[in-house]
């Protein structure tokens, strides 16, 4: 895997460090390598006479391959900005919103946010940081625009702004005053 010994050696000779890898790009590479491995496994197990012995096992292999292909397609088609969370935090959310979004999202992210509200006992408001932390534990993607695992507060703000939902300064029951989303604003989007 990258960086190889040769890449690290070349960086040392140049007196430079290799930049840290982006988790989204790593996910694309890992998924692509998995697709290639499954392709080789499938094509290498087809006998020359064309008869498929052990069909059940091959169907499982095919299902795994199709699932990996779907994951790769989602990763490649997401409009993921190639910026670290630190870079996003340094800039205004307006600058981050320049990521291209050609198609408006479905209400999937709104439904997932409402599920998180339900997990917290349906409070009137949830701090953006708490909401993102809970969403990051969800599997899958936010409206096919990036994995929940890589979600940031700025990205969530961008997704919900398409529904005219934004944060408000709210004093939460525990006394913290935070940028928060109100459950009522989300419920109106259903």
Mean pLDDT rating: 75
Secondary-structure element string: HHHHHHEHHEEH
What is the number of strand segments? 3
Going by helix content, strand content and strand pairing, the class is: mainly alpha
Uncertain segments are 81-85, 87-106
Give the strand line-up of the largest sheet.
1-3-2
Measured distance between first and last alpha carbons = 44 Å
Radius of gyration, rounded? 22 Å
How helix-rich are the residues, as a percent range? 40-55%
Strand content: 5-15%
Kindly describe this structure.
- The protein is mainly alpha-helical and 190 residues long.
- It has nine helices and three strands; from the N terminus they run ααααααβααββα.
- A three-stranded antiparallel β-sheet has the order 1-3-2.
- Helix 2 (23-44) packs antiparallel against helix 3 (55-77).
- It is flat, with a radius of gyration of 22 Å.
- 17% of the residues are buried.
- The model is unreliable at 81-85 and 87-106 (pLDDT under 50).
